[in-house]
Amino acid sequence: MKIKKFHAKTFSVVLKMVKKELGPDAVILSSEQLKENMVEVVAAVDYEGINLSEPLGAAEKPTDLSELKSEVERLKEALVQMKKSGYEMKLPDKKLRILKLLLKRSVKEEFALRLCEKAGNAESLLNVLTEEIKTMDALSAKKAVMLIGPTGVGKTSTLAKLASQAIRSGKRIAIITLDTYRIGAVEQLRFFARILG
């Protein structure tokens, strides 16, 4: 078994270091916030593995029932700690709830951790998100605006709104689509273009 301490400014950076050096089978043994901007994580990985072809010797029997109960409790606690990942051990409940919500919404773990580290609560999360997400004024684009994204996120609706704003600003527009996969996509854009003039 190889055990190693890692230090970094954030949990996400430490977790990357652990995965890079010890691999995906590494287990977080402990984590601690040392300073305001320093995190320590102790991680381990077992290189030997378990050889199931050789029988294991019998476990020592505890001498009395109280010893057995304390051993069971110790094992339960060890299992609970093993289930927790590094950020769950150290993040306060509010931030952990925000993190789990972001992960459930398919936000990349690295980005979700960065947001949680910056946000103190749900209200400040909105401010952090506003800072993190880069925006631009689409009408200030000199040549073209391209909308890319998965099905159903509102690209066509956004295109119609942008085109409408551009026409109201006196700009000439052309709408071009590469969406020949979705049934009626071209007709829908043609319809929007006719409405806009």
TrEMBL record:
GO terms for cellular component: plasma membrane. Pfam families: SRP54. The keyword Membrane applies. One of its GO terms (biological process) is SRP-dependent cotranslational protein targeting to membrane. Residues 143-195 form the SRP54-type proteins GTP-binding domain. Keywords: Cell projection, Cilium, Flagellum, GTP-binding, Membrane, Nucleotide-binding. Its main location: membrane. GO terms for molecular function: GTP binding; GTPase activity; signal recognition particle binding. It is a peripheral membrane protein. The keyword Nucleotide-binding applies. Belongs to the GTP-binding SRP family. This is Flagellar biosynthesis protein FlhF. It comes from hydrothermal vent metagenome.
